[in-house]
Amino acid sequence: MHTYLFTPPTVESLPIRGRQERFPVNRIFCVGRNYHAHAVEMGRPVDKSVEQAFYFTKSPQSLVESGAAVAYPPRTSNYHYEMELVVAIGKTGFRVSEANAHELVYGYAAGLDMTRRDLQLTARDKGRPWDTGKDIEQGAVCSAIVPMPGVVIDQGAIALEVNGVTRQSSGIDKLIWNIREIIADLSTYYHLQPGDLIYTGTPEGVGAVVPGDRITGRVEGVAEVALDIGAAD
Ligand code: MN
Fold this sequence. Notes:
By secondary structure, the chain is mainly β. 13% of the residues lie in helices and 34% in strands. The protein has one domain: Alpha-Beta Complex (Fumarylacetoacetate hydrolase, domain 2), CATH 3.90.850.
């Protein structure tokens, strides 16, 4: 046994629907620009025939469970929601084929990839990393993990409301890179491991929230997610 100078951080985890055990979270990967209409609204349309999927990461420590109330974060005046389908990886895989990609799936969740849009766009336009725009304390919101081992989701509605008004409404069938393609491609960069989460990208309609707003969203056949935005610290 090691002894530590101070108490190490706790393992981040999420509840699992229908089980007592929790899902221990390893890494959080996010797919950028994975719905055409969102890529267009960001001013960066995607031509899949000549472009590759790209990824960024969030710290596991940025996780917050659905239903939480969070403080409006520092260093932004344009805090955006992004409604996303989240894949929960349950098995190790490296250079996995698209045909075998489903074997890595433990389940799915509904998530919010919260974004300091002002910082992200400044970083993007200056060719800098996205970390401060994306890796935000309490900025990776996630529902309970829904066990669906081996299942590939390729359709179903994805939607989000702010204060009950619909802001995002699309379908999982509109993913540019689908679940099999994401898992196979990401596994060429990383040895995927149980506990990894993949936020698969957001459809069009992203926008800002302010203190007092309530975000609700869902992925049909998976789960719902909710977040209350409080006053800044
Ligand atoms: Mn996103």
